[in-house]
């Protein structure tokens, strides 16, 4: 063996040792962390909730069906006016609807397929979307017949893999994105400047949600590494992480008080994580529910958790008691997206069956 | 085996947890003691053993999972759609009929997860067999596939035909019953993996998701930080949910309904009109919510306006204006940062400023220091200080004030409007103006910006 080869072999050996020792250090620290978390876990949620009155019978029906997409609906978001929504689909179409009248108000065709993320701006004057183009673009909404919406398009975010989720912060001027490249990022809309990036997920990031806190500084993300991570928007650091799911986390949503968040995963469960207790506090699952949960959202009081699944159904969970309150049939293919309206009067689900439904 | 033009690259078998779960279900369905009742099914002159009826499948699922019949039928349908159970008669359509229709369990060899992804060569051989056997009567979409494959694997076509003939010859030597069963199994497998146009493709996936690359360094750093954090006892945290849910329950339309009616159910948008962002007479529930938390009060434009009035009476209105200016800085455009910081400084922080805010000296010193290199978070400390001041001092006094009590007393509870019984006399649904059509609200203060940004009704 030449001296050079010997050196390389020695280095490789060190690398392997280092990797192995890093791994074992990480494992042992994780174990210690779990022990610490367990020390303060003195009661289960369903026990505490025993004295809460059970919910009555739930009769929720489809109140509106929005037809117009030519392919799978992948994402939707509500406007703050409580009735308009934006939806995006696999064939590149992004449509803005007044879902109360079911009229389509705007439509734009993206230059890419699989538009997996879309969001309505807080002012109601613009929308953001992106997908396989690895970008997030902002389109101002115009009613001028002579103006082509695509002409005013602004390219804001650039990732190195698909865009999986996007959300405006408290204004039209900042966007938070999540991507298949394993990172999240905060962007200035006007200049397209990257304000902060968030590294830590070991695989694609699939979802994010901004915290409804007073100080408005954190957000949670979920990914293919089965981890849910809470980030400080200002410093870019991960402040809390949870890894109890057994498969990809498709959706995360904060509990209305901001003290907890729920997640939906391919392991067919939804889980509730408390931020002050720093642990998972509830699992919403049933033996008969086999398919992954693709998207979750809370009702206004946080008592109900609505979850859309890949077996075409929507399950409604009693957040406190942990029981399944209702199962809703109607969609003819996967439910891919689900959001409760801003005033909590209804929720909207989008599906691979090309339609969106508003339920109340 | 050549991979084909079919579904985009999806997850490897290990990462399709729902398939493994379905497999566990069908295995327990075939348990000799606890499983579904098996019987022999007569088909014309042949007798097929180990068959089950659709209704027995549904009943077993109902009992095993303690679910309604509707849910059991749905679950059964999903199992059939994925080819884990196949119909013995009319194997063209993978649906579950909850009656005497006979079904059988798919052999593990043909499970979606075992033989995945389906190979083009195997499909070619299957279609060739069909072609030979039925003397060229493939269904339209199969014919298309057949022609396409013929072009694509032309070089190996002799192999395909040879394999097809060999398999047919071997099949002839089997008993009629076995032949029938194997044909059904194979057909089901291909219905799942090459669905006819119009049928949902159950194996379709989102664009490929990456596999996990462990980041030990990040994990170690994070764990070290996390070990030092303070945690709250579960009992305390969980009690908080109970009180939050019970306080908000009456305000949750999906839990408690809403008055006069839920617009989606009654087709009447009165609820939205009464609860518009800026309305002269807010409802009682709305005024109550201002008492739930300071954040709730500030997020409501009407609530915030009344609070501003109250502060005005106490000569501390500049606190709220300062807070609003800081919000505008935090969420504003990057290019505006220096201008906004300067404007805030001039109006609220400079000695002798017109609307000087009272911050403790240490925070003021730190803030002024930071102003040398302005960035969007430079006023965070000062903003938090003023926010806590309002929250701990002015806000509780507001809630006890005559002003608030008066608002609460004045606020009305809408009467319930029932949904119209006769649908053809339904009111036409009016399209409210899109926020995109309206001019942006004009703000009076120099550094103040639109608070909620949710448009004017």
Automatic annotation (TrEMBL), chain A:
What stretches pass through the bilayer? none
Q: What does this protein do?
A: Enhances GTPase-activating protein (GAP) activity of regulator of G protein signaling (RGS) proteins, such as RGS7 and RGS9, hence involved in the termination of the signaling initiated by the G protein coupled receptors (GPCRs) by accelerating the GTP hydrolysis on the G-alpha subunits, thereby promoting their inactivation. Increases RGS7 GTPase-activating protein (GAP) activity, thereby regulating mood and cognition. Increases RGS9 GTPase-activating protein (GAP) activity, hence contributes to the deactivation of G protein signaling initiated by D(2) dopamine receptors.
Protein name in the entry: Guanine nucleotide-binding protein subunit beta-5
Top-rank taxon: Eukaryota
Keywords attached to this entry: Coiled coil, Repeat, Transducer, WD repeat
Q: What are the WD repeat spans here?
A: 66-98, 156-197, 198-241, 242-283, 295-327, 328-360
Species per Swiss-Prot/TrEMBL record: Papio anubis
PROSITE patterns documented for this protein: WD_REPEATS_1 (PS00678), WD_REPEATS_2 (PS50082), WD_REPEATS_REGION (PS50294)
From TrEMBL, chain B:
SUPFAM superfamilies assigned: Regulator of G-protein signaling, RGS, Transducin (heterotrimeric G protein), gamma chain, Winged helix' DNA-binding domain
Q: Look up keyword Phosphoprotein and say if it applies.
A: no
Q: Which residues form the RGS domain?
A: 293-408
Biased composition, class Gly residues, residue ranges? 448-457
Q: Pfam families in the record, alphabetically?
A: DEP (PF00610), G-gamma (PF00631), RGS (PF00615), RGS_DHEX (PF18148)
State the InterPro entries in the record: DEP_dom, G-protein_gamma-like_dom, GGL_sf, RGS, RGS6/7/9/11, RGS6/7/9/11_DHEX_sf, RGS_DHEX, RGS_sf
Identify the taxonomic lineage of the organism of origin.
Eukaryota, Metazoa, Chordata, Craniata, Vertebrata
For this protein, the record's SMART domains field holds: DEP, G_gamma, GGL, RGS
Question: What is the name of this protein?
Answer: Regulator of G-protein signaling 11, isoform 2 (Predicted)
Which keywords does UniProt give here? Signal transduction inhibitor
Q: Which PANTHER family match?
A: LP21163P (PTHR45746), REGULATOR OF G-PROTEIN SIGNALING 11 (PTHR45746:SF3)
All copies of domain DEP, residue ranges: 32-107
Instruction: Name the Gene Ontology molecular function terms of this record.
Output: GTPase activator activity; GTPase activity
């Amino acid at each position: 063996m030449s001296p050079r080869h010997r050196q390389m072999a020695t280095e490789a050996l060190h690398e392997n040792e280092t990797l192995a020792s890093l791994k074992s250090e990480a494992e042992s620290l994780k174990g210690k962390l779990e022990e610490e978390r367990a020390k303060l876990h003195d009661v289960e949620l369903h026990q505490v909730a025993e004295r809460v009155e059970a919910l009555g019978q739930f009769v929720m029906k489809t109140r509106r069906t929005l037809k117009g997409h030519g392919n799978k609906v992948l994402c939707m978001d509500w406007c703050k006016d409580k009735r308009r929504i934006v939806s995006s689909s696999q064939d590149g179409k992004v449509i803005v609807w007044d879902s109360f009248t079911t009229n389509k108000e705007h439509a734009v065709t993206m230059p890419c397929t699989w538009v997996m993320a879309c969001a309505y701006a807080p002012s109601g004057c613009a929308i953001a979307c992106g997908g396989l183009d690895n970008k997030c673009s902002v389109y101002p909404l115009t009613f001028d017949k002579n103006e082509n919406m695509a002409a005013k398009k602004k390219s804001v975010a650039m990732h190195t893999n698909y865009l999986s989720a996007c959300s405006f912060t408290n204004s039209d001027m900042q966007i938070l994105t999540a991507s298949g490249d394993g990172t999240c990022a905060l962007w200035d809309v006007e200049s397209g400047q990257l304000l902060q990036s968030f590294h830590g997920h070991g695989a694609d990031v699939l979802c994010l949600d901004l915290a409804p806190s007073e100080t408005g500084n954190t957000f949670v993300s979920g990914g293919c590494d089965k981890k849910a991570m809470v980030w400080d928007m200002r410093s870019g650091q991960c402040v809390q992480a949870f890894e109890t799911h057994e498969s990809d986390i498709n959706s995360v949503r904060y509990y209305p008080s901001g003290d907890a968040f729920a997640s939906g995963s391919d392991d067919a469960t939804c889980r509730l994580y408390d931020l002050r207790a720093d642990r998972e506090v509830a699992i919403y699952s049933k033996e008969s529910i086999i398919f992954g949960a693709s998207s979750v959202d809370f009702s206004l009081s946080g008592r109900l958790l609505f979850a859309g699944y890949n077996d075409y159904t929507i399950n409604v969970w009693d957040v406190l008691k942990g029981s399944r309150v209702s199962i809703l049939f109607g969609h003819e293919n996967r439910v891919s997206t689900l959001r409760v309206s801003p005033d909590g009067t209804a929720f909207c689900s989008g599906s691979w069956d090309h339609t969106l439904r508003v339920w109340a | 085996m050549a991979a084909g033009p079919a579904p985009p690259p999806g997850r490897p078998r290990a990462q399709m947890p729902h398939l493994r779960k379905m497999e566990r279900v069908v295995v327990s369905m075939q348990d000799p003691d606890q499983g579904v009742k098996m019987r022999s099914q007569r088909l014309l002159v042949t007798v097929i053993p180990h068959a089950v009826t659709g209704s027995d499948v549904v009943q077993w699922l109902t009992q095993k999972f303690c679910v309604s019949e509707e849910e059991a039928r749905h679950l059964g349908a999903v199992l059939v759609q994925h080819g884990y159970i196949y119909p013995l008669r009319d194997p063209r359509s993978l649906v579950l009929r909850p009656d005497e229709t006979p079904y059988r369990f798919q052999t593990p060899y043909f499970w979606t997860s075992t033989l995945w992804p389906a190979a083009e060569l195997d499909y070619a051989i299957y279609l060739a067999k069909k072609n030979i056997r039925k003397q060229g009567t493939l269904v339209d979409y199969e014919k298309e596939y057949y022609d396409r494959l013929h072009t694509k694997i032309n070089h190996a076509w002799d192999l395909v035909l040879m394999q097809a003939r060999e398999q047919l010859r071997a099949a002839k030597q089997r008993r009629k019953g076995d032949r029938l069963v194997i044909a059904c199994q194979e057909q089901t497998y291909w219905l799942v993996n090459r669905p006819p146009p119009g049928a949902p493709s159950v194996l379709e996936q989102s664009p490929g998701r990456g596999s996990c690359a462990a980041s030990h360094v990040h994990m170690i750093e994070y764990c070290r930080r996390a070990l030092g954090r303070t945690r709250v006892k579960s009992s305390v945290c969980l009690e908080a949910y109970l009180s939050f849910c019970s306080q908000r329950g009456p305000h949750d339309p999906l839990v408690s309904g809403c008055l006069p009616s839920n617009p989606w159910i009654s087709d009447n948008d009165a609820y939205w009109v009464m609860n518009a962002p800026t309305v002269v007479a807010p409802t009682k529930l709305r005024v109550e919510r201002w008492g739930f938390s300071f954040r709730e009060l500030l997020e409501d434009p009407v609530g915030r306006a009344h609070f501003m009035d109250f502060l005005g009476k106490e000569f501390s209105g500049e606190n709220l204006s300062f807070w609003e200016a800081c919000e505008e800085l935090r969420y504003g455009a990057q290019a505006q940062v220096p201008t906004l910081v300067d404007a805030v400084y001039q109006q609220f922080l400079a000695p002798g400023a017109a609307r000087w805010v009272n911050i403790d000296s240490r925070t003021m010193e730190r803030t002024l220091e930071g102003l040398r290199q302005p960035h969007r978070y430079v006023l965070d400390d000062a903003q938090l200080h003023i926010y806590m001041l309002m929250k701990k001092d002015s806000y509780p006094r507001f809630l006890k004030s005559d002003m608030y009590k008066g608002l609460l007393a004045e606020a009305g509870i809408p009467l319930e409007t029932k949904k119209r019984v006769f649908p053809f006399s339904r009111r036409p649904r009016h399209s409210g103006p899109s926020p995109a059509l309206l001019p942006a609200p004009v703000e009076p203060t120099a550094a103040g910006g639109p608070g909620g940004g949710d448009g004017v009704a």
